[in-house]
Specification:
By secondary structure, the chain is mostly beta strands. Helices cover about 0% and strands about 45% of the residues. It has no helices and 17 strands.
Length: about 210
């Protein structure tokens, strides 16, 4: 047998993606923002050869859309990201690049979006027969949805071994009488809560 050994410098590497909900699915692997409303995702990061905080860059977003995200802490690999569209944002979409970089500019570490696209699934065991890797994410502004959520800002922090009740207000269109499922997909280390709670059609707020 003949072998060839290649040696390269151990350079830092960074990629970001949207946390998967299903093992084989593209569900919620897109950014879909209703006019005058918000859309949230969990971004994950793969950091190799370095440590420290990273931040997402607000670039290439559809017209009328803004992004809100705190830097990802050095000891975490997930961060919540909220996209908000104005009521006048034009309907439409595009493939955009999501990029991130180290909070310390002098480190010169940056990276882009990476996702595995699953296109052909089947038996046995929901096997993946065809897929590809993509470096852009689909983002779109869509028609308004019939409700909005507002979190009442807490007036004091959550202390160690303490508890806090959060209030969520639901603003509905008059024609919308459906049930709403609220989810709490990201909890800081050491914090626990119910993952999901249902808002009944007659409720204007829930705690």
């Amino acid at each position: 047998f003949v072998y060839r050994l290649e040696i390269a410098p151990n350079a830092p590497n960074l990629t970001v993606g949207i946390k998967r909900i299903d093992r084989y699915s593209q569900r919620r692997q897109q950014i879909v923002v209703p006019q005058g409303n918000r859309f949230a995702i969990l971004m994950d990061a793969k950091k190799r050869g370095f440590s420290g905080e990273i931040k997402l860059l607000e670039e290439n977003l559809p017209a009328g859309v803004k992004m809100f995200a705190q830097p990802m802490k050095a000891n975490l690999n997930l961060m919540p990201v909220v996209f908000e569209a104005t009521a006048e944002a034009p309907i439409g979409g595009a493939l955009i690049e999501l990029t991130a970089k180290h909070v310390k500019e002098e480190r010169g570490i940056s990276g882009g979006f990476a996702n595995r696209g699953d296109f052909s699934l089947g038996q046995p065991n929901n096997a993946l027969y065809y897929g590809c890797h993509v470096t852009k994410v689909a983002a779109a502004v869509v028609d308004p949805v019939p409700f909005r959520l507002e979190l009442v800002q807490p007036t004091a922090p959550l202390v160690r071994d303490g508890s806090k009740t959060l209030t969520v207000k639901v603003i509905r269109d008059e024609s919308f009488k459906g049930k709403i499922n609220l989810q709490f997909p990201l909890r800081a280390p050491g914090v626990g809560t119910n993952y999901q709670i249902a808002v009944k059609p007659d409720q204007a707020e829930i705690k």
